[in-house]
Amino acid sequence: MTDSLVQGLTSSLGGTLSGELIIFIISMIPILELRGGLLAASPALLNVPILRAIPICIIGNLLPIPFILLLIENALNWMETVPGLCKIALWLRQKADKNKGQIEAYGFIGLMLFVGIPLPGTGAWTGSLVAALLHMKFWKAIAAILLGITIATIIMSFLSYGLLGALAR
């Protein structure tokens, strides 16, 4: 699913925006995040050099995180009062509850690994949601998420530029 979303976005935005702007935007989108940004940046798609792609994807992935940590609980509480949005708020709370045990049991390390291991349903957005709903201290959550993004960057750089790069040549 991620691959098709990334390919669809890169092809639809490719003629109008630079590769750097495309990977920045993709890195900010939930579900895709840095993983999708680095896939799009790879030699197989946009061919953005790795040393240029990494900081762009990290900044794009980090940009929404403080807002999620600080505002999501109030946003969810408000959404629950709006008839059309209450189902989305409930879904988000259920998603957080489903992943809460892993993060709650291991705290900082759990959040870092949850964000860092690139599996479906994990990442900085979901990690931030869970950290906010667990009332984790802001700077502790930011540090764990930043370290998790660093782990995800290493893994996805190898996959996108090593494995996919070799296949694209």
Give a quick set of tags describing it.
8 helices; 169 residues; mainly alpha; 78% helix; globular
Please report the number of helical segments: 8
Helix content class: over 70%
| Total domain units | 2
Mean pLDDT: 90
Largest sheet: none
Structural class: mainly alpha
Give me the Rg, rounded. 16 Å
Shape label: globular
Low-pLDDT residue intervals, each spanning 5 or more residues: none
The CA-CA distance between the termini, in Å, is: 24 Å
- How many beta strands in the DSSP annotation? 0
Order of helices and strands: HHHHHHHH
> In percent terms, what proportion of residues is strand?
under 5%
Q: In brief, what are we looking at here?
A:
With 169 residues, this protein is mainly alpha-helical.
Structure description:
- With 169 residues, this protein is mostly helical.
- The protein has two domains: 2-62 and 153-168, no CATH class; 65-152, no CATH class.
- It has helices at residues 2-13, 19-28, 33-41, 50-62, 65-79, 86-116, 124-133, 138-168.
- The longest helix is centred in the middle third of the chain and has 31 residues, at 86-116.
- It is globular.
- The protein starts with a helix and ends with a helix.
- The mean pLDDT is 90.
Topology:
Blueprint: H1 2-13, H2 19-28, H3 33-41, H4 50-62, H5 65-79, H6 86-116, H7 124-133, H8 138-168
Helix pairs in contact: 1-2, 1-3, 2-3, 2-4, 3-4, 3-8, 4-8, 5-7, 6-7, 6-8, 7-8
